[in-house]
């Protein structure tokens, strides 16, 4: 469960959080409500809307999507779409998640809403529905420059988005895939997932990395151990050593958050099991108090469910 070690000395971040994917219960957090820029992690909302449209019967994974000029040459990471090409939503989702293709994000947005502006409005509406109160999207892909405007969110809000995504099995199909051949043939692009934790952290099967000059390095990742699944978010990680070390620090932080989160869930399950195996209490035999002594009721210690109630606050 380790990643290539790099010094975290001098590194900074906007916020982190680790939650139980099943319930959204917070397992650990640090400055989780501090705003930052998610970069390509924004694409998780794009994927959520596409998959929810498919679930609602508004489109299908095999529906043909014709590429328009608006999708071409977006910059950053791309699969070099050309006007008039036709791809399935399935293929574009692989490009979106593995290659972090900005042009694929625009193509999906236009297909689902008619324009990127209309799709971004849908993104913000869905964010509100999910309780992402400190989130404002301005793009379907997180690619922004200079002074912005930039997509803005928090670690806590990204956790809420990811809990919703993890309830859709199809989402993990894309985020867990390590390689994919996009556009088979002479112009094929061999996609390789940017999430290195898929190879180094046991049980990791998602979700998305991101980096831009404006946003620094962010990541939302998830891993399963038995029936337990956690989601970890690292937002806006920066290192004085440069972008690549910052991305490695981000990966280290996410791996540590997931390790600690899974351990806490395992402890919680062990405590539950222990509670259920305790022998039933029998009522004490009532005896008359001695006239010369005062009856004193001992104070009760906090029980397991008191501790449990403190833990499960999102």
- Give the strand order, joined by hyphens, for the main sheet: 2-1-9-8-7
The major sheet is characterized as: 5 strands, antiparallel
> Cα distance, first to last residue?
27 Å
Counted beta strands: 9
SS class: alpha+beta
Number of domains: 1
Shape by Cα distribution: globular
What series of H and E elements makes up the topology?
Answer: EEHEEHHHHHEEHEEEHH
CATH topology category name: Beta-lactamase
Average pLDDT number: 89
Broad CATH class: Alpha Beta
Total helical elements:
9
Radius of gyration: 24 Å
Instruction: Specify the CATH homologous superfamily.
Output: DD-peptidase/beta-lactamase superfamily
Q: What is the second-level CATH architecture?
A: 3-Layer(aba) Sandwich
Q: What is the strand content?
A: 15-25%
Helix content: 25-40%
Query: Unreliable segments (pLDDT under 50, ≥5 consecutive)?
Result: 292-314
